[in-house]
Design brief:
18 helices; metal ion binding; Creatin/AminoP/Spt16_N; Creatine Amidinohydrolase, Chain A, domain 1; single chain; Creatine Amidinohydrolase; about 650 residues; 4 domains
Length: about 650
């Protein structure tokens, strides 16, 4: 909430104001394709996809299919995927994290949401149509218009969820077109330089960051299985974070996410998982028994599951959100199947125990120091004209790498200046890189992986003079952030109401944003953790002790973007009359840019909320100095800290 001020000789804290100049570092080409011009215009960022389309169509003809669907996920239905699973990017050139591609024998189309429309126009060549209605019904209608009656549409069942397959079937059932399950992925067959799986680098978490051993977790999950009235005999874990959480292990197969390729079949007397040779002793892999892990090859899951369901009296419990259709369709007959949206591992993992809560708070203190050092560096160097989006992204990673227990970034940093910040999920590249100037707004969305926690924080700053519109938009985004963080809500509150709190101040003046307002987060796990599950558990099941991100924003196309993102813990709260009420306790510790705040728009409650948080920041930073640098904290130090933090939202006398 201030400029960057010197903080007790150790680091600087800064955030500045904003202006409207959208000058780039160099003269720039048009950044989006124009397929209607003669000849068609393609920017340098577009990827030529003619060869892979031609080769894929050869494979399609060999399988006697007229279309092939290419999702943007992997066999575990993950949001973040390994380079070897980026089939949609290989085929289309589009690198956004969400989308569906369809290739017919003479056309190709991509469906993605509003976050990525501009990015898609920058990255795709004119072989591809861009469709903006991302519903499966929209994809199905396009297929019906392009695929002849009686023909088949191919898909990889390992990349389809149960609901996805069902929705396509429903939309196609009366059209005389049908889906054809092809277990050998056709894109993989034409992807000659497909990346390999990284060498195993699996580790077990140290005892200081865990409260429960893997054996205790296994017994707890088995208890839930035994308590189920449907009496499942086995639980299939498909999401990558399920096996990692259950065994207190981490890996490196997925960039930014400490996961490893794995499935686990947990029965009441047996545990089967992928071969983890280095940790055989830790997993009791050399014995047979209820707490001994039988290590199986990753690619044998389908055969092992088929064999298990042939046993008499077995019933397999699956979470449908993360189990692919290929595994689902081998669990037959139906009386051997038990489904729920989420497995008991995911619902248990979502509720953080006391150790997980505390270590995450500790990680956020260190992360805040890194981000503040980064903002100080920007304040000092941007006016010199030498920094770009890429150098800024590199420097924030460098600041985090110096913190205790750092394990790298939790996602690719969104470092966006001026019009690039209007793209909600922009990633800087050599082709799009802009120089940072005092005349443009700058948005940085970044996070870190630490042995004791995962962080994700977004701040929007400006080092010049912001326009009145920019100040109002920023303040209204801040108002949404405050309203979410201070709200007290009863059980049964619907998730849409949280969305409304984050958007109401923007809606009042006709502004909005095109992404969700919140998501879950793990402890040294994924930075996005089952968002729908989190909303459902927090608001319907009265669950506290969960971690949740609040991220309202506003984006003005080709001008600027604003987002404020903080992490909070869901905690119980005492009210005067009611019980079972919850609220959010914010644990992010980086102040906001004071120059961008129009305090006249804030209510007195919102002002008090910010002052309370600022006082908390002051105390935490002072304690950090005391512990790390052995400072003796005098009253003068405390007064200087408050001055340097610029914590008060109230006008200064």
């Amino acid at each position: 909430l201030s400029h960057l001020y010197h903080f007790s000789k150790v680091f600087y804290l800064c955030v500045h104001a904003i202006s409207g100049n959208t000058d780039g570092a160099v003269a720039r080409e048009s950044t989006e394709r124009n397929c209607s011009s003669t000849p068609p215009y393609l920017p340098s960022t577009a990827v030529n996809t003619s060869l892979q389309l031609e080769e894929l169509r050869v494979q399609m003809r060999g399988m006697n299919i007229s279309a092939y669907i290419i999702p943007a996920t992997d066999a575990h239905l993950s949001e973040y995927i390994a380079p070897r699973d980026a089939r949609l990017a290989f085929m289309t050139g589009f690198t956004g994290s969400a989308g569906t591609a369809v290739v017919t024998l003479n056309k190709a189309a991509l469906w993605t949401d509003s976050r990525y429309w501009v990015q898609a126009e920058r990255q795709m060549d004119c072989n591809w149509e861009l469709e903006k209605d991302v519903s499966i019904s929209s994809v199905a209608q396009w297929l019906i218009s392009e695929v002849p009656k009686g023909d088949e549409i191919g898909f990889d069942p390992f990349l389809f969820s149960l609901k996805t397959q069902e929705d396509y079937n429903i939309n196609l059932e009366s059209s005389d077109r049908s889906l054809k399950s092809i277990t050998e992925n056709l894109v993989d067959k034409v992807w000659k330089e497909r990346p390999s799986v990284p060498p195993d680098s699996l580790t077990r978490l140290p005892d200081r960051v865990i409260r429960r051993t893997w054996q205790e977790k296994v017994e707890h999950i088995r208890t839930q299985m035994g308590d189920s009235p449907y009496k499942p005999t086995g639980l299939l874990l498909s999401a990558l974070d399920e096996t990692a959480w259950l065994f207190n292990m981490r890996g490196n197969d997925i960039p930014y996410n400490p996961f490893f390729y794995s499935y686990t079949l947990l029965t009441m007397d047996e545990i089967c998982s992928k071969p983890i040779i280095k940790l055989k002793v830790y997993l009791n892999a050399s014995c047979e028994g209820a707490l001994c892990v039988q290590l199986k090859g990753y690619d044998t899951i389908l055969d092992h599951l088929k064999n298990y369901v042939t046993r008499p009296g077995v019933k397999v419990w699956i979470g449908t959100e993360y189990t692919n259709y290929a595994l689902y369709e081998v669990i037959t007959p139906q009386d051997k199947l038990l489904t729920s949206s989420y497995s008991p591992v995911l619902t248990t993992k979502a509720v953080k125990d006391e150790t997980e809560q505390q270590i995450l708070r500790d990680a956020h203190v260190r992360d805040a120091v890194a981000v503040i050092q980064f903002l100080m560096w920007l304040e000092k160097t941007v006016p010199e004209g030498n920094q770009t989006e890429l150098t800024a992204a590199e420097y924030v990673d460098k600041c985090r790498s110096k913190q205790k227990d750092s394990r790298g970034p939790s996602f690719g940093t969104i470092s966006a200046s001026g019009p690039n910040a209007a793209l909600a999920h922009y990633s800087p590249s050599k082709e799009t890189n802009r120089r940072l100037t005092v005349d443009e707004m700058y948005l940085v969305d970044s996070g870190g992986q630490y042995l004791d926690g995962t962080t994700d924080i977004t701040r929007t700053v400006h080092w010049g003079k912001p326009t009145e519109m920019q100040k109002e938009a920023f303040t209204r985004v801040l108002m949404g952030n405050i309203e979410i963080s201070r709200t007290i809500f009863p059980s049964g509150t619907r998730g849409v109401n949280m969305e409304m709190l984050g958007r109401r101040a923007l809606w009042e003046v006709g502004l909005n944003y095109g992404h969700g307002t919140g998501h879950g987060v793990g402890n040294y796990f994924g930075v996005h953790e089952c968002t729908n599950l989190y909303l459902e558990m927090i608001l319907r099941w009265q669950i506290c002790c969960m971690l949740f991100f609040e991220q309202p924003g506003y984006y003005k196309e080709n001008d600027f973007g604003i987002r404020i993102e903080d992490v909070a813990v869901v905690v119980p709260v005492q009210t005067k009359y009611g019980n079972n009420y919850l609220t959010f306790d914010t644990v992010s510790l980086v102040p906001y840019d004071r120059k961008l705040i129009d305090t006249s728009l804030l209510s007195s409650e919102q002002v008090r909320n910010r002052i309370s948080l600022d006082n908390q920041l002051q105390d935490i930073y002072l304690q950090f100095l005391k512990m790390r640098y052995k400072y003796v904290l005098t009253q003068r130090h405390k007064m200087n800290a408050r001055l340097h933090l610029g914590v008060s939202l109230l006008p200064q006398n």
